[in-house]
Structures are given as C-alpha cells and as structure tokens.
Amino acid sequence: MDIGLVMDEVAEALATIPTLRAFGYFPDKIVPPAAVVDFPEVTFDAAMTRGADRLSLPVTVLVSRVDARTARDRLLVLAGQVKAAVEAHEPTAFDSARVASVEFNHSYPLAGVEYAAAAFTVDIIGQGS
After folding, report:
1. 62 Cβ contact list (under 8 Å, min separation 6)
2. For residue 93, what are the domain limits?
3. What confidence score (pLDDT) does residue 107 get?
C-alpha cells in the first residue's frame, strides 16, 4: 500500500459528507467543521509473505468551540456519518476499511481556540509492499 494514497482516499471518502471539509494531510489553515487524516500506525506482515499490511489510521473531526452548545450534537451526528462514509467507500489504494472506534471527549487547539473534536481510529487492510 502507498500510505499517502490511503490517507488521501480516506479523506475523499470523508469529503462525501456534505458539511465536512476533509484533508488527507495537515493543511496550513483549517476551518471547522473539518476532518484531518493523520499518519497511521503500521503493522507489517499481517498475512504471511507480505500478503497484507494493517494501518491504524487516526482521523480527527473538529466542529466548533468546545463551549458551543451545538458541538456535542454535531459530533454525535458526524460520528455516524464518518463511519458510513468510510465503510461505504469503494477503495482502490487498499482492500478494506472499518471505523473501529471514536473518542468524543477530545479537544483540539487551533489558532488560540479550543475546538470540540472527535478522534476516530480507522482500521485499514491492504496488500503489503
């Protein structure tokens, strides 16, 4: 698997959510609501003789200031949308993806503002290289 292509493809899947900007990298500027795909933890040789590698891909979704009343509700709605978008995507850079977990009590500092955020873990399996 080409990890950069995997990151970009997961961002493309997330970009199908109408209200969400999605990035397969850390951009210079983020305007929430946004999703950022971070570098994965890689497990090589998940199958014998380089048959498959596994990636644990972190995705952070930011919505609004932590103290905004709607932040909780927006994150809860997006959680289901993120799972559906990633798992419905027909991949070309990997074999399969599954949103394994989400952590809601997460904040993300950006330009002096603490944003309400959810930290997702996406399990990716693909051909070893």
Report:
1. 30, 32, 33, 34, 35, 36, 108, 110, 115, 116, 117
2. 3-126
3. 82
Work out how many domains the chain is built from and give that number: 1
Q: What's the token pair of residue 78?
A: 């997006």
- Report which of 44, 48, 57 is spatially closest to residue 129, judged by C-alpha positions: 44
Report CA 127 to chain centroid distance, whole Å. 20
Contacts of 56 (CB under 8 A, 6+ apart): 40, 41, 42, 43, 100, 121, 122, 123, 124
Is pTM beyond 0.70? Reply is: yes
Structure tokens at 21: 């900007």
The CATH number covering residue 38 comes to 3.30.2000.10
Q: Which residue has the tokens 């850390």?
A: 26
